[in-house]
Amino acid sequence: LPSPGLNATERRKFRERLLDVAAAASPKQFVALATFAAWLDAHPKRFGAVVDGPNVAYYNQNYDGGGFSVSQLKALVDELSALGLDVLVVMPAKYCDPVVPNHSKRPKQHDEPRLTTTLSDQDRATIADWAASGNLYPVPRGCHDDMYWMLATVSGAGPVAVTNDQVRDHWYKLVAPRQRVRWERANIVRFDLTLERRPFRRLDPARGEGTDDRPQDHHRATRMEATEVHLHFPSLLARQVHRTSVPATDAAPALTAWHVPDVDGSDRWLVLRVIRDDRLASTAPPTVTHDDRLPSPISLPQPPPPPAAPNHSSSTC
């Protein structure tokens, strides 16, 4: 059965359309996205998964003390790596700084100062390791990072994208609705994280914490960290009605089958088989042979013979 997703022509047009949208936004965005496309084409690694970094790092972080969580992003990347996938993390360059924005909550008032999060030494080391190994792409400031992981899915080996983002704002500019559905079914991996509250050492740059010239203070705080990662990969088969055909041979009739997916989202399929045997059209009685592709024929009861016609011959009185 055919797999879901876009064909080669549709993938090429999707990629070109992404570059067109970037060009319409600004020359800077076009050059930046085209540079990323060339970087992907020349990269020695065959990425199997591209991760929407902010979408994972902000997962369920809208609580007091929540923020951009490198630790839960690392937990998801490690899970993908354990499955044998080369992983590319895509995120804005501002999240590679020692102090990063905190968009876990919106300011309640217009003049309220924006929140920030100071990354721990361990978090900064994690990001540095990804960059050194070629598994991180920082999106230049002022560019839309969603366009980067979307472009990755239609480049090279066509990696899956790990995100819970629905990207509704972009689709009317990119592909037709039916193509969007097929792309999403083939390329998007949804995820869930099991989070637990754990202690950690909060760093305060105003007090010199997190720098090399001041000792670390050992006051404690807590934050939510990922303990389990649940990945929901797309189906290898398009969940739609398929038609397959087997031509007739000297030993078996032609066979047409309709494959209908179960409505409950499981891996079960209903298969309807239709046999067309042109040999039945001959005057000679057909030769019945067993076909291993089909279940054994069911013997149906024969209808009774029609009643005899009445005898209307003449008789004497």
Overview of this structure, please?
By secondary structure, the protein is of the alpha/beta class. It has eight helices and eleven strands. The strands form three sheets. Strands 5-2-1-6-7-8 form a six-stranded mixed β-sheet. A three-stranded antiparallel β-sheet has the order 9-10-11, with no helix packed on it. Helix 1 runs antiparallel to helix 2. The radius of gyration is 31 Å and the shape is elongated. The termini are far apart. About 10% of the residues have low confidence.
Topology at a glance:
Elements: H1 8-25, H2 27-42, E1 49-52, H3 53-57, H4 70-82, E2 87-92, E3 99-101, E4 116-118, H5 121-132, E5 136-139, H6 146-153, E6 160-162, H7 171-174, H8 177-187, E7 188-201, E8 220-232, E9 242-246, E10 254-261, E11 269-276
Parallel strand pairs: 1-2, 1-6, 2-5, 6-7
Antiparallel strand pairs: 3-4, 7-8, 9-10, 10-11
Helix pairs in contact: 1-2, 2-6
Biased composition (Pro residues): 298-309
Protein name: PRORP domain-containing protein
GO biological process, one term: tRNA 5'-leader removal
